[in-house]
Design brief:
Layout: H1 4-22, H2 29-50, H3 67-99, H4 106-132, H5 138-153, H6 160-177, H7 182-206
Amino acid sequence: MKDIHEYQKDIASIRSMMERSAKFLSLSGLAGVLAGVYALVGALLAYRLVHFPLSPLEYRQYSIRDSSTLLQLTLIGSTVLVASITTGLWLSQRKAKKAGVKLWNSASRMMLINVSIPLVTGGIFVLIMLFTGHFGLAAPSCLIFYGIALIQGSTNSFDEIRYLGFCEILLGLISALWPGYGLLFWGLGFGLVHIVYGGIMYNKYDK
């Protein structure tokens, strides 16, 4: 007959299996680091396009209204997004294969749904602001809606993602107070913070 200690071990094992089935745990910390690097490169390209030779720390008093420049900025942002998603999927697939689990399961589907709703809503909202000339709040809105998406997605993945989401929302709100520093906050939120988060996740879960 099993003793109490063995029953506790069985209960812990069952709880662990239930958590794994309910949560998407194949996210790669390295993908977060690389996404941050892509964002910093994108921010540098955007800086050279709209702000150079002024210092990136100098408050920008003007809005970018030239359609050609706006198109280039949209292409830079889209390229960063596609590169980040592609890298994330590839590294997550590799991590899932190594762990002997499927990348696409009920947990990953639920996480995709939870993340997509605020991301798609935020993307449409930003496009509306650009179309109506509210350029100064585009970068803060990207950070805020992205943070909300991360908090939504954290219910089906690592708890650390929730704290990343809070950081992104906070940076977005601060950026909204100083819209002239939008590019700087964009690079900080999507770049530097992502690299730090990805490094922590890599050391904690990927090694």
